[in-house]
Predict the structure of Macro domain-containing protein.
Amino acid sequence: MTDITFVRGDITEQAVDAIVNAANSSLLGGGGVDGAVHRKGGPEILAACRDLRASRYGRGLPAGRAVATTAGRLPARWVIHTVGPRWSAAEDRSALLASCYRESLRAADELGARTVAFPAVSAGAYGWPLDDAARIAVETVRGTRTEVEEVRFVLFDERAYEAFTARGR
């Protein structure tokens, strides 16, 4: 059984096997979590992402998918990049958001990772309502078969931390 924990903090400082990056489809860095991962992880992560773009993901990583790279200078061993969907009032994209968590856990299993730290995927710049993002994240992790022993949700601010811990009870 996977233990689920909640931490208020900076995902780039987590000493876990893998951290999940809320990436954009280009895989080449951006704002929020993605920008922090690339800045703090150093050029090794960008080089690995460029290799992915030159080979398997020429058009970028589609929403709901996940792919792993080195963690560069981060305390984690790997970074699992996943692209969350943008929230839409007109279209239910919940299955794509859930897929981000499932696919990231699948990638973690392929790596042999036992501890994985997740941010609140899609709940920042992509506009997903925080309570719903927390519900989808926690329910999906709980419902996914994995060899990961600990999933740590690392939330940057108090509002996100409260939303996720409320779902974790």
In short: Strands lie at 3-8, 18-23, 66-70, 78-83, 115-118, 150-155. The chain has a mean pLDDT of 96.
